[in-house]
Design a protein that fits this description.
The complex is a heterodimer of chains A (390) and B (263). Chain A is mostly helical and 390 residues long. Helices cover 71% and strands 0% of the residues of chain A. By secondary structure, chain B is α+β, with helices and mostly antiparallel strands. Chain B has a single domain (48-262), classed as Alpha-Beta Plaits. Chain B has helices at residues 2-28, 54-57, 66-75, 95-98, 107-114, 131-135, 161-165, 205-208, 215-219, 236-243; strands at 48-53, 90-93, 120-123, 141-143, 149-151, 172-173, 198-199, 225-229, 259-262. The chains are: A mainly alpha (390), B alpha+beta (263).
Chain lengths: 390, 263
């Protein structure tokens, strides 16, 4: 089936070429990082995780969102999602690949990455994150490819794939829960030490991922013959609306506990983020942009008139996506380190090389996504929009 | 076809026989792990601990960094030009940074009067319940039975999870190759590090094994640093803890630091 990705119109080939350039540029920056060390990044002794781990955290959420299609379709027989479930699964494949690439990019000694298997340490949450992420990648590749392969032959999917599909549902929850536990179990990091971290992660995941899927569906509707169906897009939009409301609610829960209890170790981080602390406020504009976009998006997604509008919906979804990208991809990881446990303030600014590596990984993700979507859509268009019986 | 099958069965049978012979070989030949004879002079303790007697530290002339220099000399600690990439084993910081949770602004007056406003010494706390060990995905950092929290520089993958987990800022990554930045004379008996691995104070485990006390303790002429077995009631550290009120950093986090401060 992969050969279907080799041909395409001029726009498709130009897009692939552009992505290859972005990936190549990022890779050449990575070679420099490999030979010099992580010192070429903006990370420091105090802010020891940066853009890479931020993107990883955000993308775990995007990956987990496939379950928002798989669950209604396979558990509730919600046929409307039949055409686009494959898009969710392939988005998960691309996202998890980016997650794993960001982890590798962040390692000081990437050649030793397999020590995590060689000296498997079940008491480390990172070990479990490795297990669940690789498992989720495997599940989605196998499920997506098998279902699509069967469809291209005009046959129903083999029965052995069904248990894997059911397994992928709790597995999607697990990847975001375990990733939240990476942060929520550390003493002395007041910003992360909150039991609501995993629910918060899930809330934002089920908003950001489906929002991105809506944007993809609307793009495909406009520029290809593939039509996900307005009902499917509307159902996704309702999921985004609920998830976004839940995300905002969870964030307000954090704000209440932190500011009503007034415990310094927790409050300093939020104050640094929201208004700046001791003259340091590099992330404050980002956070306000995040909140303004987030609230606007929530309003646009709640009101039926705007949510149902073909012109406004993509704006709402883009706002959801960028708002949550700032929240998970930038502020969540960085502010955990600012101020440091010694209550000193070291700010973090990524270097150009670091940004180039980050874009390279995003480029790689989009490349994988483009190829998988091209194959899926070509199969769908040649076989006709049939729903898979189950 | 038949001969091939017979051939296969022969080899398979021999292989099974070979597997079965393994315990026999083990019984005849001594295949035990190579053993390391411990140095008879080695210092042995049940729970190593350190006391920072800050009242004695202030007798030292201002700007004294004997302990820091001794540590750097023994462990080839680099002196990184960019403070954001600093590698620290034992270092100095003001009271508010060492004990931020105390939040007692009037301590500043006490510090100024009694401790001359001098900075305090910081190092890895060798916690009894170390979060860094809990999170490490490769056991590159581990806790010995005598309480020393160790680093295996050769196993560390540089994920920096331990740096996020440590509430004391006691861990440093080698953001760059540290070797060009070693300012002290190279100690050939201790490894230099490569880029991309985490390092920290090791309570001089390599010196204890030879019967020597930690280099910083030895270097302090004012005896402001005291090292010993905190589970031994007759040790010097226990005597000091009996005689003086002492405190530890961030005790509320439950990591059980084994560096005690007398202020």
């Amino acid at each position: 089936m992969l050969e279907k990705a080799l041909t395409g119109n001029k726009g498709y080939l130009l897009w692939i070429a552009f992505l290859l350039i972005v990936v190549g540029t990022g890779f050449s920056s990575y070679l420099k990082q490999l030979s010099t060390g992580l010192g070429i990044t903006g990370m420091s002794r105090d802010v020891s995780w940066g853009l890479y781990i931020g993107q990883f955290t955000f993308l775990v959420g995007v990956a987990a969102s496939a379950v928002m299609l798989v669950l209604p379709y396979y558990l509730h027989n919600y046929k409307v999602f039949g055409k686009i479930t494959i898009l969710g699964e392939f988005l998960a494949v691309a996202s998890v690949t980016m997650c794993l690439s960001f982890i590798i990019a962040d390692l000081g000694q990437p050649a030793r990455a397999f020590n995590v298997l060689l000296y498997a340490t079940p008491q480390s949450v990172l070990f479990w994150d490795m297990v669940v992420l690789n498992g989720y990648l495997f599940l989605n590749i196998v499920i997506g490819w098998t279902v699509l392969g069967a469809e291209s032959r005009g046959a129903p999917p083999p029965s052995w794939v069904k248990p894997l599909i059911y397994l992928s549902i709790p597995w999607a929850i697990s990847i975001h829960t375990v990733t939240a536990f990476l942060y929520a179990g550390l003493p002395g990091r007041g910003f992360w030490l909150t039991a609501i971290m995993a629910p918060r992660f899930l809330g934002s995941a089920f908003a950001s991922g489906p929002a991105l899927l809506i944007l993809f569906c609307m793009f495909l509707r406009k520029f290809t013959k593939f039509d996900a169906g307005w009902t499917a897009i509307q159902s996704l939009a309702k999921i985004v609306a609920y998830a976004m409301v839940i995300s905002v609610f969870f964030f307000l829960c954090e704000i209440f506990t932190v500011y009503y209890s007034q415990i310094p170790e927790h409050i300093y981080h939020f104050t640094y983020l929201l208004s700046g602390l001791h003259g340091h406020s590099a992330l404050t504009p980002w956070m306000w942009a995040c909140m303004i976009m987030g609230i606007t998006a929530t309003v646009l997604m709640i009101i039926p008139a705007t949510r149902n509008s073909e012109q406004v919906l993509p704006i709402g979804c883009a706002l959801v996506f960028f708002s949550l990208w700032i929240e998970k991809g930038i502020s969540l990881v960085l502010v955990g380190f600012i101020p440091s446990p010694l209550e000193t303030l070291t700010e973090y600014v990524p270097t150009l090389r670091e940004i180039s590596i980050t874009l390279g990984v995003w480029g790689l993700g989009f490349l994988i996504l483009t190829i998988l979507y091209k194959v899926a859509i070509t199969v769908r268009l040649t076989e006709g929009p049939q729903t898979v019986e189950h | 076809m038949d001969s091939t099958r017979r051939h296969f069965l022969k080899i398979a049978g021999l292989s099974v026989l070979g597997l079965g012979a393994r315990p026999l070989i083990d019984a005849i030949a001594d295949v035990g792990q190579p053993k390391v004879e411990p140095n008879p002079n080695a210092l042995v303790g049940k729970r190593w601990a350190m006391i920072v007697d800050q009242k004695k530290c202030l007798k030292a002339k201002e700007g004294c960094k004997d302990c820091v220099l001794a540590c750097h000399r023994v462990h080839n600690v680099p002196d990184m030009p960019n403070p954001k990439q600093a590698v620290k084993w034992i270092w100095q910081a003001p009271f508010e940074e060492v004990f931020p949770e105390v939040g007692n602004v009037y301590m500043a007056e006490y510090m100024k009067d009694s401790l001359k406003g001098l900075p305090l010494m910081l190092l890895c706390n060798h916690c009894d319940n170390p979060p860094c060990v809990r999170v490490c995905p490769t056991k590159a950092t581990f806790r010995r039975d005598d309480g020393i929290v160790m680093m295996d520089f050769h196993r560390c993958i540089g994920c920096r999870y331990c740096m996020a987990a440590c509430p004391f800022g006691a861990r440093s990554l080698n953001w760059l190759d540290p070797r060009p930045f070693i300012k002290t004379e190279l100690n050939m008996e201790f490894p230099t590090r490569t880029r991309g691995v985490v390092e920290k104070c090791n309570f001089c485990d390599e010196r204890l094994a030879k019967g020597l006390i930690p280099a910083c303790v030895e270097a302090c002429k004012d005896k402001a640093l005291v090292f010993g077995d905190v589970l031994d009631p007759n040790s010097e550290v226990r005597a000091l803890l009996r005689q003086h009120p002492s405190t530890r950093r961030k005790q509320h986090l439950g990591t059980q630091p084994q560096v005690y401060y007398i202020l």
